[in-house]
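Structure, all two chains, one model.
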Amino acid sequence: MPTGGVFSGSVNLKYVKLGYQYLVNHFLTLLLVPVMAATALELARLGPGELLSLWRSLELDLVHILCSAFLVVFVGTVYVMSRPRPVYLVDYACYKPPASCRVPFATFMEHTRLISDDDKSVRFQTRILERSGLGEDTYLPPANHYIPPNPSMEASRAEAQLVIFSAIDDLVRRTGLKPKDIDILVVNCSLFSPTPSLSAMIINKYKLRSNIRSFNLSGMGCSAGLISIDLARDMLQVHPNSNALVVSTEIITPNFYQGSRRDMLLPNCLFRMGAAAILLSNRRREARRAKYRLVHVVRTHKGADDRAYRCVYQEEDDQGFSGISLSKELMAIAGDALKSNITTIGPLVLPMSEQLLFFFRLVGRKLINKTWKPYIPDFKLAFEHFCIHAGGRAVIDELQKNLQLSSRHVEASRMTLHRFGNTSSSSLWYELAYIEAKGRMRRGDRVWQIGFGSGFKCNSAVWKCLRSIKTPTNGPWDDCIHRYPVDVPEVVKL
Amino acid sequence: MELLALLTVLLLAHAVAYLAWQAVSRRRRACCYLLDYACHKPSDDRKVTTEMAGDVIERNKRLGLPEYRFLLKVIVNSGIGENTYCPRNVLQGREESPTHDDALEEMDDFFTDAVAGVLAKTGVRARDVDLVVLNVGSFSPAPSLVSRLVHRFGMREDVMAYNLSGMGCSAGLIAVDLARNVMLTRPRTTMALVVTSESCTPNWYVGTDKSMMLGNCLFRCGGAAALLTNDPAFRGRAKMELRCLVRANIGAHDDAHAAAVHREDADGRLGVSLSKALPKAAVRAFTENLQRLAPRILPARELARFVSRLLLRKLLLGPRNNSKAEGGGSSPKIDFKTGVDHFCLHPGGTAVIEAVRKSLGLTAHDVEPARMTLHRWGNTSASSLWYVLSYMEAKRRLKRGDRVLMVTFGSGFKCNSCYWEVTRDLADAGAWEDCIDEYPPETLVNPYMDKFGWLNDLQGQGSGFIF
């Protein structure tokens, strides 16, 4: 797939489209410009002395002034009230599994050897683990500690209750949230969707209100966390004065692959247990204690393309074992999806200087010299912190290269992969917790969360920090943050 | 003086124009039209009769004679006819070992028929769809079914796709709720595709737990796809306009939450267990929903009448409450027929339809669409209300200005309702086209009643037949 031409071509069109939309949407505002310009000119022409005599000749009495003032204030208030409501992230909690669920390399390898008869598979998984970028402290649910693992529905429900309820309890402790105050509930869990749904399970456990608006998203992959945030944001735009609880998790228990196909063994090695609960709100009084404000959510879906659609695919192997196969082209497809996402988010977040540079380089390529390389905007100017989905070492490497980031920018992602493994949709929240635990989050900082997932989707969310976050944060990193960052070698010899 | 006045006037005029424009565009986006919908009609080779169902049950060697009789009794009394559809793997004898591909094939058949159908009927291209919401209760592969849909029809890169799962038989209206809320937030008009189905392939229960076997007798294959839009340009072509949608979830009560649970039985086999507390949970959820719905859809006159009768009764009876024998008889009922012309009830089973009929005070004519849908298609879970709507349309019942109320129940326990106003006379028979003239049939009695009729003479088998 040609990268430069298609990329710049679609960007070209996007800019034209954006320009037209801006013109039409802000037509009345733009009309104001000539009016104000004319006024300013007129005032400049008159000079101060004349202005004073003009003012005196107005013969304004109290009634006039009061009426005008009232009208101005009234119109101003209505205008302010009619703007889209800001969506605040009040706080979030990440689940920290107990030490009994820990899976060091030795445990993982021993279990693999005992479960599998196939030597080649065992050696393959060893090699994957060596190069994975995971550390010795990642967690698997209790059912996976059995030999062989016990992927029953009961065990899956138990894991779901453990991770979700712990995360929500932690969030309630941190925010003082009352269950009766939750108006919107969005749960996403890709590979486990029982009946009644996980959202109904939460409603039952915490006795939430009967008129709650709940949604249970499923099957949407590792980028589903941001899809849930998008849905919660839309619901908060429609319902004033509301709280939204978003729960992102991935239930590992039912998804252990028992066969020997290599492309399906990868998830066994990489996916680990985790969950995050996030409280969003559009209540004005939450603005005081909220940590972040949601600025943009941009979603890109590459499902129309065959290769992208099949790159993360659940199917049965020849022996009938169900597993998720990851294709070798995953990196290239992730890069493509990211480029598409950037073309939409770039104009929204990049400073004018970068946009102009990009535009001129584009014009130059078209008119002057075709061999000029397309300009890759410097996103470091737009964001202070990056949270890249910890899908695997290769994904982080690829994005670091594509976005030209330094190792400090991807540190949160690498360390999350090392400490917690690939926790799917909740990994972005562990990364954010890392940045906060390191004391790097200052007021006014902008954060870019990028998630990738099956479909193939690339979703981005942009947050703005509203208050400097003090350490210790009482998050999942508190007991080990002093050890980080850790140097993760290319290959760990097992 | 003139300049200042002119300036103030200009600024004020600008501000007022801006606010007016905002208000108008918000109002334009606030309407939600049902452009069209299509119900899935599976191919004829998937039809299953009572006799065939009996054969499938007989194949299961784990079932003893009592279970066999119980199941046949359920089927014979279920109100389900001889033309419902089953997944292929069950008919081919592979109900114990459904494969992933079988389930995907069932979904693909549905996409090809209903989704392509609704796009063709309306002339909307897949690339024009801005939002797609898919709901399939108990099958959720990776990549999601909504991604499969996006892939199959080649939708745009910036399409907003949502995949709901696990939300039970009432999730069709949850999908509509999601679509409507997202439409309200977009600055431009949105074309939304709402796709609802249920996956029967992986969910045929092969064990011996009675509470789980009911699902096999009631749930059948089906699905529906609908196009919703908030573009006023489509008003002339739209079929109905959404007026109000109310959701009630009583999952906070433990027994309601445990009414329908997908779990393993004592032998480790998966199935959906329907508990005996289900009818009570349904009634509770229904009441909860109606309490919030009634003030929004009924005319003020009816509400006033109901409230005054309630107050009068309380005054007359004084501090003594729950006295049924005294004076006026049963408690005053609110008459929904003053605000609703057609009732689209979830055909969960004959007992459910009957219970709803009684509590709303409806006639046989009102519940005929639900009963006939149950007979012709079985309980197709979340998509069944679209079949009920289609029946009403095929029978030419829906005229401009009529008001339709959709009510569904589902696990959780939820009761969702949706109130529509018909915008033009409707006459499209849809999936009922080839058989609408045969409905209502002379008798709904199962033709195998004679053969299996001896079942009804047996007492004390499978207590409390809840459906």
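Chain B has a mean pLDDT of 87.
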